[in-house]
Amino acid sequence: MDTAVAGGFSPRNGSKGLVLKALQLLAAAVFAGWLMIWIVMPTNTYRNGWSIRIRAETDSTYFGRQGSNILINTFPILFISVLGCLYLHLVKKSDTSQSSIHRLAAWKRPVAVNWPLGIVSGVELTFCLMFLVLLVWFYSTFLVANFSQLHQTDDGVKLWQARLDMAAVWLGFVGDLCCAFLFFPVARGSSLLPLLGLTSESSIRYHVWLGHITMAVFSAHGICYIVYWAVTDQIDMMVKWDNTGTAYVAGEIALLAGLTMWAMTLPRIRRKMFELFFYTHQLYIVFLFFYLMHVGISHFCMILPGVYLFTVDRYLRFLQSRTKVRLVSARLLPSESIELNFAKSPGLTFEPLSIIFINVPGVSSLQWHPFTVSSSSNLEPERLSVIIKKEGSWTQKLYRTLSSPVPQDRLDVSVEGPYGPVSKNFLRYDSLILVSGGSGITPFISIIRELIHQRTTLNRPTPAVLLVCAFKTAADLTMLDLLLPISGNVSDLSGLELRIEAFVTREKSATDEAQTNIRNIWFKPLPSDVPIAPVLGPNGWLWLAAIVSSSFVAFLVLIGILQRYYIYPIDHNTNQIFSYASRSVLNLLFICICIMAAASAAVLWNKKGNSKEARQIQNIDAPTPTTSPSSWFYNADRELESVPQESLVKATKVHFGGRPPLKKMLLEFDGSNVGVMASGPGGLRHEVAAICSSGLADNLHFESISFSW
């Protein structure tokens, strides 16, 4: 096994390794402190002791009562984000495998397969249980500490009604705790996820889980208050918007927006009417704005870190999406799949299993769809490819556009990304079993192309690979054409220990209908079209750290000036005179201005370098046509050496009329350290996960690849 994988850093990188460990420990210590604040928040020790002392120290004429929440709730996570950027920059420059650093990878063995949550690994189950315990502790501790202090009053409010009021208040705090984590998984370009060895694609499920819990808690919060107002004859409170207190109307609007989004996440609606789900999910802006109006900016600082990092990421994505990228060519396969080939800057590097979001205005100006990148940035430094299967309405319209008898010489495309892992974890295995169904083969194409680079260019040892792919029809076998890049040559696969077992499930034998040539379409770019380039340049993590830190410092300066010279002379830190809504809107405006200014400056600075690099990229020559792999299986009498892609033919065996015997193939596979990756329909991934978690083979290490986005 490679020394970098097994043992971490070489002596040459020893000092850098110490720096990385120090950054990890510092980030972990700060996070532990931040989490501890949430843990002790419902206790009397915190509310009657720590909180009072912290506010006394931070309640200045520059930040008011908002200062304490900025210090203990907002600053720690943004500081960790900056540390994460520095850490990832050093890891990228050191070219060191992350597999030895992220010890959580050893916990990825599935422990539950058929739960409503899908495939759940040991580490995921552990952290889910810990989070649920935190929620129960948070809520129950407050109720125990405060119910004993409630007594019958003379104002007509009964004891059970007072307890209902108190229970409703702290349900809102539980919702705040969920919201504090809610936006971390959807900040695609944030450093927090890769710092933990996660990707935005694999983490979107955590956003879904948190979203369900958040809306359930906030719904209970709202229902409890409606019941409380009804039984105490205060139902008119539902239309109350206090100038310096709680804005109940704003809370109700936020709840309605949240409930609308929640309803549209039902699996049947999301799968059958994705556009409806997509458009209603933009109500998160309404939800956040009126949530802010409901609780005020001081309280909002409790969830501000996730919202802040998401806003930075969202604005950077917006800036990247304003540019039309250069689409070089498209390959139309008989399987009704499309390979889109883009020009990319050599400075843009990404790892296998990365995803990219694509917008085609000619199909839909508003919809963005994620696709797995099938190319290798090392093997193809000036090209980025994605494979799109004709399935939904958007992909069907795109396929009709490209397959039209009228030749297409131009297609406007914008992109966001790519986003993906920061390491090649699959290289830590001695062998790989890649199990795919249909278009699920796409992420494995990027892995095989990267292995080609590792073997042929770097002359490094690579894992032995067994690719088990299931297709519905023989026409889908042409997907195997894409294992080699469009500029690939015969010798590319010869150095790999590759075996392909292809299964055609709906046909008993080969048919002549599948013998259809691949159609190549070459586009004429406009001078304004640019190669896909990193929005923040080759040192993107450093620039992201600069954006987060500088924008936050600028925000603190602006609200300090606002508080000291405008709000304080009016309110004198009493929070009883100056409007909560006005204060919140001004803070929100400053946040947006600071983020936009810092991010725009960083993007414009790096755009100059990207433009110079783009001018150096030459036109990519068209390839010479090659025989389609689908024709291999209808010309068995031909000499094998006459087939251009000889090594791929030798590695491939096709089976008709049945599904792959996965249990037999997996359990009988030799090897002490075997990585098993499954991609495709949920049933296939669940079957593979169940085999790997059955305990019958300890050498199998499972990793599921889903298209959660």
UniProtKB/TrEMBL annotation:
Its EC number is 1.16.1.7. One of its GO terms (biological process) is monoatomic ion transport. It holds the Pfam family Ferric_reduct. It is a multi-pass membrane protein. PROSITE patterns: FAD_FR (PS51384). The keyword Transmembrane applies. It is found in: Membrane. GO terms for cellular component: plasma membrane. It catalyses: 2 a Fe(II)-siderophore + NAD(+) + H(+) = 2 a Fe(III)-siderophore + NADH. Keywords: Ion transport, Iron, Membrane, Metal-binding, Oxidoreductase, Transmembrane, Transmembrane helix, Transport. Signal peptide: none annotated. Residues 320-425 form the FAD-binding FR-type domain. It is an enzyme of class 1 (oxidoreductase). Belongs to the ferric reductase (FRE) family. This is ferric-chelate reductase (NADH). It comes from Musa balbisiana (Banana).
